[in-house]
Amino acid sequence: MPRIVEVLILGTSAGIPTEGRGLPAILVRDWYGLHLLLDAGEGVQTKLARHRVPVTRIDIIAVTHPHGDHINGLPGLIQSMYMMNRRRPLTVYGNSEVASFLRETLEVEYLDLGFPINIVQIDGDGEAILWESGGDKATLSWTNACHTVESYAFAVTWTLRPRINKRLLVETGLTDPVLIKTLLSEGEVETSRGRVILDEVASTASTRTTLVYTGDTSPCRSISMLARGARLLIHDSSFASEHAEDSHERGHSTSLDAAILARDSGVSLLVLTHISARYRGGEALRLLREARTIFPNSILAWDGMRIILNV
Ligand SMILES: [Zn+2]
C-alpha cells in the first residue's frame, strides 16, 4: 500500500479573512485513515465542503490557541457533526482556555450532541499516539510557541518499522506468522534455528517523517527544536521583514524569520502561511521572495493548496 500523507491547507490568512484567503485551518489525512484538523478558523466548514471532505470524517482537532481566528470555526463544525448524527467520539487537543471555550459553547447552545467529545487539555510539551498498527505509528506532539497568549506548535510524526526482505527471511527458515509478528514488534525473536534479528532481515531501516505547524508565533527556540529535520514546516509568516519589530511585538514572524528557522532546523520544505490581509493577491509574493533569499525551498501557501508526502 502506498504510504501517502495529504496536507490540505484550507485557510491561510491572518486575523481577518480576505477575498482570497480564509482563516487558519489545515487538514492532515493519511493512508491509514487519519483525519486531523489543525486549527479551526471561521469558514472551515465551507472550505471542507469545497474539497468534498465530510465534517463527520474528522476525528481529531488540535487547536494552537484560543484567539478567534483559530478557533471560531469549532462550534459550527461540532454543530454540523451533531446535525449529521455523528456517533463516533471526537478528540480535541487544546490548552485550558480552548477546553473552557468548548465546554461553555456547548452549554450555551444546549447541545445534546449524541457523541462524546474527548477534550485533551495540553500544558507544556507533550505527545499522544494518533494510531498504531503492526509496529508503525503516527503521533501528535506539541511545544509552546512564542505568542502574546499561551499558544502551541504541533508536530505530526509517522514512524514506520523496518520492512522485511522476504528473501532474507526465507534464508532464516522463519515461517511461523506468530513468530514473524513478534519479530516485527520486538525487533528480534528466538526460533528453533537460533535468534533472528529484524535489522538483519530488513530491506529498509525504520523511518520517521514529520510535519510541523507553528500556529501564531514570533521566532521561537522551542519550535526550532520541534522542527529539527522535519520534512515540512508550515510557519507563521504574517509580514515582510520591514515590519519585523511590529511583527515580533504582536507575537508573529516575518517571512525572513520563518526562512532562518527552516534553514537552521534542517527542514526539507518551508510553507509560509498566516499572511496578513495587507498583502492582497500577488503582493504576498514579496514574502516568498524574501524567504527564498535565505531558504530556497520555500513556498507560499494559498487556500486549497495540497501537499503530498510519501512516507
Ligand atoms: Zn493569535
Model description:
The protein is 27% helix and 31% strand. With 311 residues, it is of the alpha/beta class. It has a 7-stranded mixed beta sheet. The N and C termini lie close together (11 Å). The mean pLDDT is 94. The structure holds zinc ion (ZN). Zinc ion binds next to loops.
Give the SSE map.
Elements lengths: L3 E8 L1 E2 L10 E6 L4 E4 L5 H7 L9 E3 L5 H4 L2 H10 L6 E5 L1 H13 L8 E5 L4 E8 L2 E9 L7 E9 L5 H7 L4 H10 L1 E4 L2 E4 L9 E7 L7 H6 L5 E5 L7 H6 L5 H11 L3 E5 L1 E2 L8 H10 L3 E3 L4 E6 L1
Parallel strand pairs: 2-16, 4-5, 5-6, 6-7, 13-14, 14-15, 15-17
Antiparallel strand pairs: 1-3, 1-18, 3-4, 8-9, 9-10, 10-13, 11-12
Helix pairs in contact: 9-10
The protein binds zinc ion.
